[in-house]
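Researcher: I'd like a candidate sequence for this fold, 326 residues long. If you have to choose between options at a position, lean toward the conservative one.
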């Protein structure tokens, strides 16, 4: 089995290192700059659980060097994807599956969704349907990422916690391709359940991200403050209640209530959200895939989302002022 990790940063590097070390697949990573150079020279070092392993996936700088794959796992941030979709074409053979391990709502969301929006492009993450054309949604497998990891220096990944990558076909089927991928990830030491309703799990993860990420960027506060300070908690909770109504109108089943979801976030402690980290480092922020899309769906459904709309306007302005809005 040939698996390519496109954008082998923290999460992609974690997956690549474990897959390559296990021998469960022929692994290629696509990266750039000092990170790529370090992997080519010294291998990919993974620090996890007090131990360090050195894996040696094939490390290249372009899709053309990698060639056609059985699976392409995309671990880029959502706003980066439209700019590289055409460059990914050499990876795609007749039966290549594209695994979208990307935060937020993916470009293929309405593929085989059913109902009035079936097949529709998600403009917040795929303006004009460019990704639907370049990365056909019938190739897509959903992937919800739970591990936390960081690139601590070029070629070195520090894995903090988590080992689950939930998988699912857009139509809910247990296809041979999703089962094979699940088995391969399990052989590499991960939990990789195949979910019949992958969008439900997608929304439960999004539920916290759509609120805590932008509010953290606006206030420069960590997760413990957002969940513990009553006024900030109330803002986040209002956003989540609005989003739940939107998700349920699209057929989503939330397996927990909003206060349990907030309590789960509080247990993480003094965590700096990814959006806050991006703001501090001057990098593009994942605003549209996490919150812009929720407001887009509210407009499609003609549902109110006043708190989400307000926070979206404020965080976009904050990001533009910092040069962090792609």
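Model: Candidate sequence:
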């Amino acid at each position: 089995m040939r698996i390519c990790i496109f954008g082998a940063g923290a999460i992609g590097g974690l997956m690549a290192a474990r897959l390559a070390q296990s021998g469960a697949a022929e692994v290629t990573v696509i990266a750039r700059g000092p990170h790529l150079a370090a992997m080519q020279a010294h291998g990919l070092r993974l620090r996890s659980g007090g131990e360090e392993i050195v894996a040696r996936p094939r490390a290249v700088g372009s899709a053309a060097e990698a060639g056609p794959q059985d699976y392409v796992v995309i671990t880029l941030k959502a706003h980066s994807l439209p700019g590289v979709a055409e460059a990914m074409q050499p990876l795609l053979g007749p039966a290549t599956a594209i695994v979208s391990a990307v935060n937020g709502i993916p470009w293929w969301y309405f593929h085989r969704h059913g109902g009035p929006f079936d097949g529709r492009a998600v403009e917040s993450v795929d303006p004009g349907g460019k990704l639907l054309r370049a990365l056909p949604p019938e190739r897509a497998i959903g992937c919800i990422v739970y591990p936390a990891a960081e690139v601590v220096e070029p070629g070195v990944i520090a894995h903090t916690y988590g080992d689950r990558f939930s998988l699912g076909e857009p139509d809910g089927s247990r296809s041979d391709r999703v089962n094979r991928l699940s088995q391969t990830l399990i052989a590499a030491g991960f939990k990789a359940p195949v979910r019949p309703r992958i969008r439900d799990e997608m929304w439960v993860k999004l539920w916290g991200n759509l609120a805590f990420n932008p509010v953290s960027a606006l206030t420069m506060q960590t997760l413990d403050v957002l969940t513990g300070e009553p006024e900030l908690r109330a803002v986040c909770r209002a956003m989540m209640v609005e989003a739940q109504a939107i998700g349920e109108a699209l057929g989503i089943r939330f397996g927990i209530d909003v206060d349990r979801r907030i309590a789960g976030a509080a247990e993480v402690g003094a965590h700096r959200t990814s959006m806050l980290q991006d703001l501090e480092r001057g990098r593009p922020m994942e605003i549209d895939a996490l919150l812009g899309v929720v407001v887009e769906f509210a407009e499609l459904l003609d549902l109110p989302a006043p708190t989400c709309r307000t926070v979206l306007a404020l965080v976009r302005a904050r990001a533009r002022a910092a040069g962090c809005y792609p």
